[in-house]
Amino acid sequence: SQTFSTVNSVTSQTHRKKIESYLSRASYDFDGKYALSASFRRDGNSKFAPDVRWANFWSVGGAWNITRERFMKSVTVLNQLKLRASYGKVGNDGGIDYYAYQAFYNLGRNNAAEPGFIQGTLSNYELTWESNNSLDIGVDFSLLNNRLSGSIDYFNRQSSGMIFSVPQPLSNGGTTSGGFTVNTNVGNMYNRGIEVQLVGQIVKTKDFSYTLTTNFTTFRNRITKMPDGQPNIINGTKQLSVGHSIYDFYLRHFY
Predict the structure, then answer these.
(1) Region at 108 (left for phi over 0; alpha for psi -120 to 50; beta for the rest)
(2) Backbone φ and ψ of 172, nearest 5°
């Protein structure tokens, strides 16, 4: 017996996305010299399957205002010297669509008058958050009666469980040309570098001031892990592979 009739035209769309978060934060300051802070959060994201949609994220940080110490009172050239450091873990859903972990089907693949459908996407009930562990170490300074100030930072952001759209063979259930891609937590990479900012008050009078700000940044991005069996993934004008940057172009040579 036939379980459904021929469909002439049907369209319908429903989009639902929910993120639920619980946040906490604690901070402590002693005499303007020492500062400590910590945070903890628990997030749930409907883009992931119920068993893996919840994750915990946190951060800790501290600062030492050296110019508040007694031994610095005789150093008049410095108006501020502060050391600071922080480390934390945050989550990212990787820009995936609302129903990335589910399998869907496409209607309209009829055989003459007989209705039919094909596989549209494959499921992955283990798909979950990307995680980014970030370290930042910096120093803030000001000298010469605040005529020259600035900051120097070192940052190192380690991304793990990156969500890649991994190509699948047709033997996995695909019937379209080229097969399917499945969002999977498989990649690792890092972003690290140094940032420097200098601010100088070149002219400072009662009625006029002129300030010059300069910035300098070094940045290095490298992929450190790719999916098993997929050492290279072509993504538009880029080819993703271990030891290379996600920003490297992969194009034909031409004149």
Answers:
(1) left
(2) -85, 10
Task: Quote the percentage of the chain above a pLDDT of 90.
Answer: 50
> Which amino acid, 6?
T
Distance of CA 8 to CAs 14, 41, 104, 120, 252, Å? 21, 49, 20, 20, 45
How do residues 46-59 score in pLDDT, each as one tens digit?
999 999 999 999 99
Contact 191, 218 (CB under 8 A): no
Q: How far apart are CA 135 and CA 90, in angstroms?
A: 12
- 70 is written with which tokens? 């007694």
State pTM to two decimals.
Answer: 0.80
Euclidean distance between CA atoms 89 and 66, whole angstroms: 28
In angstroms, the CA 249 to CA 237 distance is: 6
Residues in the chain: 255
As a whole number of angstroms, the distance between CA 154 and CA 208 comes to 35
Cα separation, 118 vs 136, whole angstroms? 49
- DSSP state, residue 70: G
61-80 pLDDT, tens digit per residue, is: 999 999 998 888 888 888 99
* Largest separation between any pair of C-alpha atoms in the chain: 95
pLDDT > 70? residue 5: no
